[in-house]
Amino acid sequence: MDNYLIISSTSTMSLSHFLLLVIFFNLSLLCVQCNPDYRDALAKSIIFFQGQRSGHLPPQDISWRGSSGLSDGSLAGVSALHLFSCIVDLTGGYYDAGDNVKFNLPMAYTTTLLSWSVIENSRKLGPQLPATREAIRWATDYLLKCARATPERLYVGVGDPNADHKCWERPEDMDTARTAYYVTPTSPGSDVAGETAAALAAASIVFKKVDESYSKLLLSTAKDVLQFAMQHRGSYSDFLGSNDELLWGAGWVYKATNETYYVDLLKSVGGGEGIDIFSWDNKYAGAHVLLAKKSLVNNDETFGEYRQKAEDFMCKILPDSPSSTTKYTAGGLMYKMGASNLQYVTSITFLLTTYSKYMAKANYHTFTCGKLVVTPETLRNLARRQVDYILGDNPMKMSYMVGYGTNYPKRIHHRGSSLPSVAVHSEEIGCEGGFQPYYYGSNPNPNTLIGAVVGGPDQNDFFPDERGDYTHSEPTTYTNAALVGPLASFAGKS
């Protein structure tokens, strides 16, 4: 029975007693939703990355996944633009969503956000710190291969997305072309190069005290990749710019080195006025918050412009701000985009908790949005509201994290989760073999992708839980990565 109390006609229970039971029952449900277990959600949010791994897998919690993409790199250099063929090792890394393609731009952003989460919350991560480092290293080992395999070439992805998206098959059965894509001085991609530099530099900070030699390798590679990005300007993705990644990359290399050379690079890049979004394809707000710490906490007014831009961004997010450009659903969820809205919610929430922390460190700094006085608690309370909504405090009483609670999405848009595992169904499922009965079927997914945060509900707080509705039901690594920091912030003790 689903949330119903049934009293037979012969029951002697009084009406008042019955009503008290109903009230108590409903309050119990409300209590569960309003007191989320941040520690449990944090642990699950990190386990999720195991389900996205490519390459040779070790024993892991998500046991229904197997090794895949073991020939990645064998077609390196073969693409529509580059006909020179060589064989390199491009195994590893992550599939970024419910498909079987490795896109380095969102993967590197995922890595940067996970690293930033550790940098800001290493103590609050508690027992999840080693697992978070492991998740970061799974990505950086791959990104190092991409950056160091061939001189004057940065590999930026593996797998033909057009071919892959016509298939519904497990990663373990992939039979589409594993084309390797890369950028060069003559075919530049300063956007993906800048983000790769940011990821490697941020991760170098994470490993500095636990693996010094690895940290040095990450940082030296980050410097080389950033130099490549700066010298060879141009956007790899036609619909994206590249200045935000250059600012982001230079900001992270500066944070890792504290070398004034990178301050000059930052000044030469600039940009990012009037921003009200933060995501894998727009890093300005993240760069501003990152760099604002120098002004806020260290009183270095060389970085004052970034503090101002960071606070202008917050004013565009806060619902009571006169300059807010952000919509909220009736249930209280930040609503930025119709497709995969929770990726924007988690990324912005990460900035809210991080800037709140900086403000608190800066002698309880405040700022104003018109007449609205913004304190650290103002930002932190809004962040907590978003996290609680994702974990089930919403009109549908649904957790949008798979495996958290009892009411969560059961038909997520994810190939590996929706198809029987190799352990259960050893026969190969070909490119089109997974559509019937699995993709088009109404049964819940046979494999639980623990911790996966889906695209989320629509503007009316409604979630259909349909596998084919990828805009709402597909999980992504970058959605999860941005949630790790806020969960740690609320789960841990200072």
What does this structure look like?
This protein has one domain: Glycosyltransferase, CATH 1.50.10. It contains 17 helices and 7 strands. The chain has helices spanning 15-34, 38-47, 104-125, 129-148, 161-164, 190-206, 212-231, 243-257, 260-269, 284-296, 304-317, 341-361, 376-390, 415-418, 435-439, 470-473, 477-491, and strands spanning 102-103, 154-158, 180-183, 327-328, 334-335, 367-369, 372-374. Strands 1-2-3 form a 3-stranded antiparallel β-sheet. Mean pLDDT is 91; it is low at 1-32 and 78-84.
Distance between the termini: 42 Å
CATH architecture: Alpha/alpha barrel
- Helix-strand makeup class: mainly alpha
Order of helical and strand elements: HHEHHEHEHHHHHHEEHEEHHHHH
Note poorly predicted spans.
Answer: 1-32, 78-84
- Percentage of residues in DSSP E strands: under 5%
Number of helices: 17
Reported for the largest beta sheet, the result is:
3 strands, antiparallel
Q: Write down the CATH class.
A: Mainly Alpha
* Share of helical residues: 40-55%
CATH topology (fold) name: Glycosyltransferase
Rg, alpha carbons: 23 Å
Q: Give the strand order of the largest sheet, numbering strands 1, 2, ... along the chain.
A: 1-2-3
Mean pLDDT: 91
The structural domain count equals 1
